[in-house]
Hints:
- By secondary structure, the chain is an alpha/beta fold.
- The chain contains 11 helices and 13 strands.
- The strands form 4 sheets. Strands 2-8-7-6-5 form a 5-stranded mixed beta sheet. Strands 9-10-13-12 form a 4-stranded antiparallel beta sheet, covered by helices on one side. Strands 1-11 form a two-stranded parallel ribbon.
- The chain is globular.
Amino acid sequence: MTAWEANVRKVVPYVPGEQPKIDNIIKLNTNENPYGPSPRVKDIVMDMDKLKLYPDPAASALVDAIADYHGVTSDKVFVGVGSDDVLAMSFLTFFNSGKEILFPDITYSFYDVWADLYKIPYKAVPVDEDFRLNKEDYYVDNGGVIFPNPNAPTSIAEPLSFVEDIVKNNQDVVVIVDEAYVDFGGETALPLVDKYENLLVVRTFSKSRSMAGLRIGYAIGNPKLIKYLSDVKYSFNSYTMNMPSIIYGVESIKDEEYFRSTVSKVVETREWFKSEIEKLGFSCPPSSANFLFVTHNSIPAKELFAKAREAGIIVRYFNKPRIDNYLRVTVGTREEMEKFLDFLKTLC
Ligand SMILES: *Cc1c(COP(=O)(O)O)cnc(C)c1O
């Protein structure tokens, strides 16, 4: 290794699910929502001449719309380029004690990547054999706690009392609850934000609002947390939120009816599909998300994944200990799931 290379910050990057460049595939691998953004977003005609200007660095229009929606003041809202950006900023801002931060061993696989990137020590706390978190495992001295609720890729949600117990027992550190999937059936921790100044709740427009391509995420927390986050963000890049994201994001959040109707379609399709595949020898934990975490009683997941791909259906397979016999299947439209079911019926 050359001298300069010895001083490179070396990271093993997060590997997102494939975005295939093939037409006519059924894409059930990255938990996108198949229904697309609200018609209010599609109807907007943006004045492209405005792009000559920098966007509002505070993204105030979007922050205010999100604050209104959740019934909180705007000083409790931070927005970022997808929740990945919000989470990365939060790691950088809050996890500086030098102590191990805690998150489940089976969880969103970006957490250990950010920890490594920022040289934050961490401990991956094993979930039990049913993939449940054990809250007492988090009642130890630590440098911070983060977990998704519902968890990914397991789809399992824990009740609000469970989340509160973890926050209550960790008031010396920041606790981040990643609610990327909460709209599909989880119980939100937002009511706890006024009670615990160390709680940060992170949300995204990518899943339930079907706007993954626009990259909008946000956090809600005590104004002090938000101020610290903003200070770091403004020290990194003032203009993270681009102008179209701010404009389209505001319209999306105003269309409650469309949001509700598409989320309930996903939930309905999920429950129907779950009951159908259970007849074929599949099992999966109860899902509170827009995906199912499935395993079959005889066909290995890896083989299922490969055969589905050959048939033009892409799901997510994690070649990792404990979950290498599971597939994470995003809930698509009813039509897509019917095609996938037909494929599974022939295979089984
Ligand atoms: C999808 C996802 C995110 C990231 O979503 P963005 O598109 O960056 O907003 C964060 N956390 C979990 C658990 C996710 O599944």
